[in-house]
Amino acid sequence: MGNFGTSEILIVLVVVLLLFGSAKLPQLARSLGKSVRILKAETKGLREDEETAAQPAAASPSDPRQEAARLREEAARLEREAAAADGTPQRRPLPSGEPIQGVPVSDPNKIRNS
């Protein structure tokens, strides 16, 4: 029952091709890959949560500023990973005085956020 031969695998592939069509298969494979990546990340996060719960509370940083900086770095890393997974371009900070669409600005972040 559990032994699939080449002919059975080919039959399954033909049925999948007929059900989804050749245009939908790349999209289906992409979404399956994203789902697997998310599942792996979540299981890794659960393992890390269990490990940190097992560690004593003395291991936590005493300075809230250091913890806030670490959290900001972690959020930036997660945003970069999400952007890479979605295929959206990453935003880079503009240096002060760089022209935006040919117009020099003193504070580019004010223009970008509005």
TrEMBL record:
Keywords: Cell membrane, Membrane, Protein transport, Translocation, Transmembrane, Transmembrane helix, Transport. One of its GO terms (molecular function) is protein transmembrane transporter activity. The keyword Cell membrane applies. GO terms for cellular component: TAT protein transport complex. InterPro entries: TatA/B/E, TatA/E. Residues 43-114 are annotated as: Disordered. Residues 53-62 have a biased composition (Low complexity). Belongs to the TatA/E family. The Tat system comprises two distinct complexes: a TatABC complex, containing multiple copies of TatA, TatB and TatC subunits, and a separate TatA complex, containing only TatA subunits. Substrates initially bind to the TatABC complex, which probably triggers association of the separate TatA complex to form the active translocon. This is Sec-independent protein translocase protein TatA. It comes from Actinomadura rubrobrunea.
